[in-house]
Design a protein that fits this description.
The protein is an all-beta fold. The chain folds into two domains: 11-128, Carboxypeptidase-like, regulatory domain (Immunoglobulin-like), CATH 2.60.40.1120; 131-238, Immunoglobulins (Immunoglobulin-like, Sandwich), CATH 2.60.40.10. It contains one helix and 20 strands. The strands form five sheets. Strands 5, 6, 8, 9 and 10 form a five-stranded antiparallel sheet that branches.
């Protein structure tokens, strides 16, 4: 499961989901479904929450986080799909399921990185009624000097990764491992059941050998429905 003048090229009629595009825009299609994670059974839009709002926010190339003005497009939740138009840039895109009048939010989905410089894109969002996700950003630093390191300088090649191991505190045998592309500097884990977790973060080389001088461990809680818990910005010390 990746900045910032938005000009007059973008025009939306958010109440109907209708869009107007220019030659420099890219089309992004978002599709959403609802799932009960424990048994992977399908669900439908929650009662009273009939609006699916697609939110797009440009990303900052330094912090790797959303920055600047968000772009909002609204659709009928039951449609399960919405198509929007974005100027060329890199974005975090997510879906918020809202009440009929917009006064209440059922959940905010995980964020998906979209770089429209590469053209049109499609994202699939699975909304969980009993689980959620962890989101994190990272940089690599020398463990002694704290000097920032590029992934290649640290020995994380294209076959290497940044690894996050999530262990449920209530059932310590249940361990979920996610591996991310180091150069992305951010990632969202696979789905996790609601509960308390410890998450250990390391940088790995192409043989899965840990390059970190020590694992960085964070304790956080996954909430439902479809909670997105921010682990924060992790500095991974490289020995």
């Amino acid at each position: 499961m990746k900045n910032l003048v938005l000009g007059a090229l973008l025009a939306v009629a958010s109440s109907t989901g209708c869009i107007i595009t220019s030659d420099s825009d890219s089309v992004v299609t978002a599709r959403w479904t609802f799932t009960h994670l424990a048994d992977r059974s399908p669900r439908s839009c929650p009662v009273g929450f009939t609006t699916a709002t697609i939110v797009s926010q440009p990303t900052d190339p330094v912090t790797h986080r959303g920055a600047g003005t968000t772009i909002v497009d609204k659709f009928d939740c039951a449609d399960g799909i919405g198509t929007i138009s974005l100027p060329d840039d890199s974005y975090l895109v997510w879906v918020e399921i809202e009440s009929d009048d917009g006064s209440q939010t059922y959940t905010k989905s995980q964020q998906t990185f979209v770089d429209t410089a590469f053209g049109d894109a499609t994202i699939d969002i699975d909304i969980l009624d009993d689980g959620g996700y962890f989101f994190l950003t990272w940089d690599l630093v020398d463990s002694v000097t704290q000097k920032p390191l590029a992934c290649s300088e640290a020995g994380v090649t294209s076959d290497g990764s940044v690894e996050a191991i999530s262990t449920n505190m209530a059932t310590s045998q249940k361990i979920i491992t996610d591996k991310f592309t180091c150069e992305d500097h951010f990632g969202t884990t696979d789905a996790l059941l609601a509960g308390n977790y410890t998450v250990a973060i390391d940088a790995l080389d192409s043989t899965d050998r840990a390059l970190s001088s020590r694992s960085t461990t964070v304790s956080k809680t996954i909430t439902a429905p479809d909670g997105l818990t921010d682990l924060g910005h992790i500095l991974i010390p490289i020995q």
